[in-house]
Amino acid sequence: MNVLNLTSKANSPPFELQVRALEERGIDCTTISVPGTVTADSGRSVFDYLRFHPTVLKESFGSYDLVHANYGLTAPFALAQPRLPVVLSLWGTDLDGELGWVSKTCAKHCEATIVMSERMQAELGRDCHVIPHGVDFDQFEPIPRSDAIARLDWDPDAKHVLFPYKAEREVKNYPRAKRIVEAVRDDVSEPVTLQTAREVPHREMPTYMNAADCLLLTSDREGSPNVVKEAMACNLPVVAVDVGDVRERLNGVTPSEVCRTDRELRRALSSILASGERSNGRTQAEEISTKWMSARIHDVYRDVIDRGA
Question: Per-residue pLDDT tens for 87-107?
Answer without folding.
Answer: 999 998 888 878 899 999 999
